Amino acid sequence: MKKTLLIFAFLGLSTGVMAQEAADKDFQAGLIIAIGPNFQKMGTKIITNDGAGLDLTIGMNANWAFNENVAFNSGVEFDFSNVKYKTSANHDIYYWYNDSKILQQDEVAGAASKELFKLSSRTQTGTYLTIPTMLLFRTNFIGYFRYFGKFGLRNSFLLTNKIDDAGANYTADIPGNSSEVQGDNLNMKAKGDMFFFKSAVGFSGGAEWNFSGSTSLVAELGFYYGFTPLHLDKNDGNTTLFTAAGINGTTEDNHFSNQATQQQLQFKISILF
Q1: 235-239 contacts at long range (C-beta below 8 A, 24 or more positions apart)
Q2: Rounded distance between C-alpha atoms, residue 56 and residue 37, angstroms
């Protein structure tokens, strides 16, 4: 009986020592990986979203403790994000391109070689450098675990962007003619289409497991509401997309920019030292 009590006392003491070691740290840092869907809120009726996209995030995070229960969370993350669009049933959308470059309207007239494409659906894949700035509120350790909530911003800067389009090419440069050839335009580039900066405000909650010394495994689920545009709203000369005269019910081509903001769900795993 005494041996059993001694074993439980030792285990309890070990648990308290390990948890206290993690709790006493003013600074934690480590690696993260996260995944989750994204959802586009459209600002135009000409293009619609085509279901949820996907975000994959890797990087490092750090916590600077003000006290045992409040800390500042930041870091450097790389987001690999794709968003999906499709044309609405009431609009035929076109663009001009040369090789892998989608031409802006001001570039079309001077292009030595150009082809016409009718857009059906689009997947845009962007790589972002993201800097989260969050306030972290957490409980004291209960055994090996403590629980937390975070609130703040994710600020992202666009590094690269590519476009994969499905639709039809034309053998004659006349929108709406019968010489459509179904096909895909892959790895396309559109200068200035996506806005170079996006920001989202959000919150997350989760648990930290202190499993060895001062090393912890952290799991959290968050929601982030984007309030900056995904795409640059440009004047007519710098746009790439248009609906064609006659087909669109007017006597002129209607040039426009895509418009959308983004919401994200994110499940994140971190290991902190």
Answers
A1: 236/105, 237/104, 237/105, 237/106, 238/104, 238/105, 238/106, 238/192, 239/104, 239/105
A2: 9
Check residue 176 and give its pLDDT: 59
Backbone angles phi and psi of 231, in degrees to 5 = -120, 150
Question: Does pLDDT of 9 surpass 50?
Answer: no
Mean pLDDT of 193-212: 96
Terminal CA-to-CA distance of the chain, rounded, Å? 38
Cα 212 to chain center, whole Å?
Answer: 33
Domain residue extents for the chain: 2-272
**pLDDT of 76 higher than 80:** yes
**Residue found under tokens 């020592």:** 17
- How many angstroms separate the CA atoms of 209 and 219, rounded? 9
- Cβ burial, residue 218 (10 Å; 0-12/13-18/19+): buried
Identify the band that residue 29 occupies on the pLDDT scale cut at 50, 70 and 90: very high
Task: Determine contact, residues 220/150, Cβ cutoff 8 Å.
Answer: yes
Give residue for tokens 């969370």. 73
pLDDT in tens, 224-256: 999 999 998 877 778 999 998 877 777 788 888
**C-alpha separations of 98 from 78, 111, 117, 185, 186 in Å:** 31, 8, 10, 11, 13
H/E run at residue 16:
helix 2-23
pTM exceeds 0.85: yes
